[in-house]
Amino acid sequence: MEWLTTKIEYEGLPLYLRIPNYKNIWQFKKIYQNLVCITHHFDSIKENGLPTSDYNKSLFDFDKETIDLLNDNGIIFLVETYDGARMYWFYAINIELVEKAFEKLKINHSDKKIELDISKDSEWNLITEYPVKLYKSV
Predict the structure, then answer these.
(1) Each residue of 40-97: pLDDT tens digit?
(2) What is the 3-state secondary structure (H, E, C) of the chain?
(3) Phi and psi of 61, rounded to 5°?
(4) Which residues 6+ apart lie within 8 Å of 104 measured at CB?
(5) What does the alpha-carbon distance between residue 48 and residue 14 come to, in Å, rounded to a whole number?
(6) pTM for the whole thing?
(7) What is d(CA 2, CA 60) in angstroms, rounded to the nearest whole number?
(8) Residue 40 has what pLDDT?
(9) Which of 16, 28, 115, 122 allows an S-S link to 81, with CB 3.0 to 4.6 Å?
């Protein structure tokens, strides 16, 4: 997957954004209507809230596994790194499958502090109202 990245400052701290380079993300809007966020709280951070370099390198496998977590049940549309945490944002179809996949991730990475949040967002408000333009409008 090709990723587009940017860094901005938000409330005095660096905010790193990574989005997949979808040709047309809006084609998935009718299919995926549940907003999913997996938050990983870092164990080792710098003063500015970013992970330390060696610690960040140690997260590559976890990062890939999390990005690929939902397979055909959802799509990832944003990865945020900010203030001591990394948030993986998805839209998904089946909440039960998301919960099962997350439980497996927790078991495989019991050393990581991760949490799951799921809400309904059929209008994709997070993308359309995000403070930075993530994707071209429909």
Answers:
(1) 999 999 999 999 999 999 999 999 999 999 988 999 999 999 999 999 999 999 999 9
(2) CCEEEEEEEECCEEEEEEEECCCCHHHHCCCCCEEEEEEEECCCECCCCCECHHHHHHCHHHHHHHHCCCHHHEEEEEEEEECCEEEEEEEECCHHHHHHHHHHHHHHCCCCEEEEEEEECCCCHHHHHCCCCCCCCC
(3) -65, -40
(4) none
(5) 7
(6) 0.96
(7) 16
(8) 98
(9) 16
Both tokens of 75, joined, read 């799509």
**Distances from the Cα of 9 to the Cα of 3, 13, 18, 49, angstroms:** 20, 5, 14, 12
Q: Which of 17, 52, 36 lies closest to 115, judged by CA?
A: 36
Token digits of residue 78? 């944003």
- Return the amino acid letter for 71: N
- Do the beta carbons of residue 91 and residue 73 sit within 8 Å? no
